[in-house]
Fold this sequence. Notes:
The protein is of the alpha/beta class. The chain has a single domain (about 5-125), classed as Rossmann fold. Helix content is about 45%, strand content about 15%. The chain has six helices and five strands. It has helices at about 5-15, 30-40, 50-60, 70-75, 90-95, 115-125, and strands spanning about 20, 45, 65, 80-85, 100-105. Helix 1 (about 5-15) runs parallel beside helix 2 and helix 3 (about 50-60) crosses helix 4 (about 70-75). It is globular.
Amino acid sequence: MAGGRYGELARTLTASGQIPVIVGPDVPAEVVATIMDFCPSAVDLSRRTTVNETVFLAWAATAAVGPDNGAMHLAAAAGCRTVVLYDGASDPALVGHRGGRVAILRRPRLSEISVGEVLVTLETLKK
């Protein structure tokens, strides 16, 4: 998913009463800016949280969505509903996130993953 799609997702989640929080040490500044343009009520904690703080945020979160990175591994380990986005370069069978509340969406390019797919996947994790 590109920054614009993350922004659309954040806006959609905000409309349902959730507060999107951006975390991770390596979120590109332009992605953060795009998300904030789409959803000014999102909270930008990128590059501002420790590992322990990231785990606490994930533990308290309704859900986590993002690419294959350390923050998503922490979210999965914390028991958060987690949708991990993979492109063709990563193999979830080798480095995949584990847990009963984890779903993986994989496409050759992250830009091929739609907001709708992510929302449907989040719903399946509620059950």
